[in-house]
Amino acid sequence: MLGFLLGTVVQLQQSTLLPWWVNVAMLGLAVLLFLAGRALRRPGGLGMVLVALALALLGFGVTGWRASAYLADALNPNLEGRDVQVRGIVANLPQRNESGLRFRLEIESGSLQGQVVRLPPVMDVAWYGGANSAGPALWADARTGPSGTPMLSPSAMNTLPADVRAGERWDMTVRLKAPHGSRNPNGFDYELWLWEQGVQATGYVRSSAKDPAPQRLEQTWHQPVALARQIVRERIYREISERKFAGMIAALVVGDQAAIDHADWDVFRATGVAHLVSISGLHITMFAWLAARIVSWLWRRSSRLCLWFPATHAAVVGGVLLATAYSVFSGWGIPSQRTCLMLTTVAVLRLSGARWPWPLVWLLTCAVVVACDPWALLQAGFWLSFVAVGVLFASDAGVRPATPATATGTADSQPARWVTWAGKFAHSVVGNLREQWVITVALTPLTMLLFGQVSLVGLAANALAIPWITLVVTPLAMLGVFVPFLWGLAGGAMAWLFAYLHGLASWSWASVALPVPPVWAAAAGVLGGLLMVLPWSRSLRVLGLPMLLPALLWRASVPPLAEFDLLAPDIGQGNAVQVRTANHALLYDAGPRFSVESDAGHRVLVPLLQSQHTQLDMLILSHKDLDHVGGAPAVLTMQPQAELLSSIEAGNPLQALRAARPCVAGQHWEWDGVQFDILHPQADDYLVTNKANAMSCVLRISNGRQTALLVGDIEKPQEERLVAAAAALHADVLLVPHHGSKTSSSAEFLDAVAPRIAIVQSGYRNRFGHPTATVMERLHERHVEVVDSPHCGAFTWQSWQAQNGACFRSENLRYWHHHVP
Ligand SMILES: [Zn+2]
Q1: What DSSP state is assigned to residue 603?
Q2: Mean pLDDT in the chain?
Q3: CA dist 198 → 82, 229, 329, 370, 374 (Å)
Q4: 652 C-alpha vs ligand 1 centroid, how far in Å?
Q5: Mean pLDDT of the 310-315 span
Q6: Measured in angstroms, how far is the CA atom of residue 676 from the centroid of ligand 1?
Q7: Residues near 537 by Cβ (< 8 Å), separated by ≥ 6?
Q8: For the whole model, what pTM was predicted?
Q9: Distance from the CA of 146 to the center of ligand 1, in angstroms?
Q10: How far is the CA of 784 from the centre of ligand 1 (A)?
Q11: What is the DSSP letter of 708?
Q12: How many angstroms is it from 142 CA to the middle of ligand 1?
């Protein structure tokens, strides 16, 4: 099994796929090796090695072959940016938000200008419209105009259909794009997420006046579960008056978390109970556990049933079946699928009477899941549910049947006889709580390592929240499907719990962020955590403690004295550059806002700063445009100590979050031997009304040997002024002005700066066409190395290794990632 897993792991490191015949050859070789290994017959030794090698080749070959087959359906790059007529069936629960609707479409046919075209079988579609729409844009797209004001595109004038329902067949015109997400260190891998769900294209509905109107053809029965979920979701919203709690109950029943807003998620995360309101592996495991208990209790009411099939076995089968049913109804997401597979594996093993040692059972569940879904190995959620399932079944209570006695068994019926019913009940409640407690404790180090955040009040929160959600809220919410009145009670129970969590979260030490350690330290930490909770001897448990230390004491590396580094994260169309010296850090601009409910701050910058444990001394917002200040509220909230330096006007709403000091040419400071200078705007620029771009704060960073120049969105007139003033413009690294727009990067300016490396922060297929061909040509003529976000992802550069920087996307490119043309 280890061989199989290793083969798969190696395959997952590939940046491009091998030709199909290589994979087939590997499978052939695997069969030969396997036969040879078996022929040797001796246990252990060479035979074993050959079999392991055969299984490694099998893992590699099968995964590679599956990936090739899947990629054959990828979107034809020639169709990107084209308006294609598609006919398809709505395949999930449509999500409505302020900017429009989102849903998944199972494609039946497609055509371009009357010609039939081949399309990927599944695509994610957005339908923009409504009052708040800022125009058509998917994640990593621009939502703001060149001047930063929200642009109302033609489709923004559309009104959305009253309703799009799961299972409906539609004809619509969709502008297509390959799946492309931002790539940042420790960031969410959107492209892998889509790959796992089989989505190979994204797009938005074209429905302006000159496009053919989208047409609802009919309601089909292709998606009965999704339709049932949609109906239940609507009923929940009708039954529970307060939308906030209706959203939480909907999350528990139909797995739709969209209605839980940022602030509430922050409360759940700060108190470490986010796993309870999302249909995570842990949640399904808890559900299976409760279902097994109930089935076992009911089964033991009947001696005839028990004679026919032992209650412990019935509990296992019932638990797994009910958990699977729940998973299906709550959306059958990837984490639920994996967890059901793990639970089934463990259940089959137990029913077969096999007494395997626990490490082997774990390895088997892992191998089974990986055989079905090799890409699971790369997902945090997989490891969380893997550990949760393992701990549940391996902990004391899990290994020995936890039910006091089976009708046929006699093992522990002796003491149970004289225990009163009340005593038994109390005993079982305590036992149950203990089990849940063990899981929480076991998962704490893992959560910390995966998400870089540990909730100090988490234990207090979970102690109440786990039994409350598992034993009270979830059962009420599920029964509400049959007796809607119970939803009101469930909502009330949730409101009560939320008040408690809110109280806990408001403590300033509620949660602590830790830097994300390297893999080896993380693995040691997780092993240590496991050692500490598993039912082994005390001396073994104590060993777990030192194994936690490397992860706990890990500190992200910082620049040496008199040096600095730059990190330009992939935030799509906008600017954001982090600058660090030995003891200080600043963020130059805070990225774009994507929509009312999402911005680069929440999506990228806050997690990134957290994962490196960066404390900002200063946030510079070059100017007020939304592609530069969109993420500022999130960053300012998370970094209360950061000073704000900016050209934003006095009445800007951001001033309420932090009073801004105007940036003015001549400002200068030194951090750890590195000089910082503001070169623009001039003090008297504030006295007249200027274009926002013209007010961009220009920052020069230099240690005497290396220089970087960050210029925001300045345009030709400001560039000319800087050149004319003979400002110290020369720089090794230049943040290309205005994302490579033709309004900027004049030849004179580029000659004065003479950069070696030019960073263009722009969105993939952004609709302004940034960076423009003219600017790219000017840079190439001057032999400047250009790094742009769509190709490079996050870019890092260090003044003490100044020759070249590092591109996160290209250095971590795997075959499921978008290979940008
Ligand atoms: Zn801009």
Answers
A1: I
A2: 83
A3: 21, 21, 20, 16, 14
A4: 17
A5: 86
A6: 22
A7: none
A8: 0.82
A9: 6
A10: 21
A11: E
A12: 10
pLDDT mean over 155-180: 80
Distance 135 CA to ligand 1 centre (A): 17
- For residue 90, the surrounding DSSP H or E stretch is strand 83-90
- Ligand 1 centroid to Cα of residue 310, in Å, is 68
Cα 622 to ligand 1 centroid, rounded to whole Å: 9
d(CA 8, CA 5): 5
> For residue 75, what are its two tokens?
């979107």
> Terminal CA-to-CA distance of the chain, rounded, Å?
38
What's residue 415's pLDDT? 41
Ligand 1 centroid – CA 712 distance (Å): 7
Report the 3 state secondary structure along 398-432.
HHCCCCCCCCCCCCCHHHHHHCCHHHHHHHHHHHH
Helix (H) or strand (E) holding 786: strand 785-788
Q: Distance from the CA of 807 to the center of ligand 1, in angstroms?
A: 22
Give the distance (Å) from ligand 1 centre to CA of residue 700.
18
- Distance, CA 440 to ligand 1 centroid (Å)? 45
Q: 532 CA to middle of ligand 1, Å? A: 51
How far is the centre of ligand 1, averaged over its atoms, from the C-alpha of 738 (Å)?
A: 5
The alpha carbon of 663 and the centre of ligand 1 are apart by a number of angstroms equal to 17
> Given this model, what pLDDT does residue 533 score?
67
What spacing in Å lies between the alpha carbon of 627 and ligand 1's midpoint? Answer: 5
Short-list 257, 249, 255, 197, CA closest to 229 = 255
User: Is 781's pLDDT higher than 90?
Assistant: yes
Task: Give distance in angstroms: CA of 228 to centre of ligand 1.
Answer: 44
3-state helix, strand and coil shares in percent for the chain, rounded to the nearest 5: 50, 15, 35
pLDDT tier, 103 (very low <50, low <70, confident <90, very high otherwise):
very high
Q: How confident is the model at residue 293 (pLDDT cuts 50, 70, 90)?
A: confident
For residue 629, the CA-to-ligand 1 centroid distance in Å is 9
Ligand 1 geometric centre to CA of 740 (Å): 10
pLDDT at 791: 94
Quote the ligand 1 centre to 559 CA distance (angstroms).
Answer: 28
Distance 130 CA to ligand 1 centre (A): 25
> Over the range 467-499, which residues count as b (16 or more CB within 10 Å of their CB) and which as e?
bbbbbbbbbbbbebbeeeebbbbbbebbeebbe
| The amino acid at 444 | T
Distance CA 531, CA 491 (A): 39
pLDDT digits (tens, 9 = 90+) for 610-666: 888 899 999 999 999 999 999 999 999 889 999 999 999 989 999 999 999 999 999
pLDDT value for 419: 45
The answer to whether 736 and 688 are in contact (CB under 8 A) is: no
13 CB-near residues (< 8 Å, 6+ apart)? 814
Find the 595 Cα to ligand 1 centroid distance in Å: 16
Higher pLDDT, 533 or 481: 481
Conformation bin of residue 114: beta by default, left when phi > 0, alpha when psi is -120 to 50: left
What are the Cα distances from residue 672, in Å, to 578, 709, 728, 747, 800?
A: 16, 18, 21, 34, 14
What's the CA-to-centroid distance between 764 and ligand 1, angstroms?
15
Is the pLDDT higher at 701 or at 361?
A: 701
Where does 575-651 show beta strands of DSSP type E?
Answer: 577-580, 585-588, 593-595, 598-599, 618-621, 643-646
- The CB density around residue 241, as the number of other CB atoms within 10 Å, is 10
Indicate the helix (H) or strand (E) that contains 142. none
Contact between residue 344 and residue 325 where contact means Cβ atoms under 8 Å apart: no
- 546-580 pLDDT per residue, tens: 877 777 777 778 899 999 999 999 999 999 999 99
Burial class (CB in 10 A: 0-12, 13-18, 19+), 203: buried
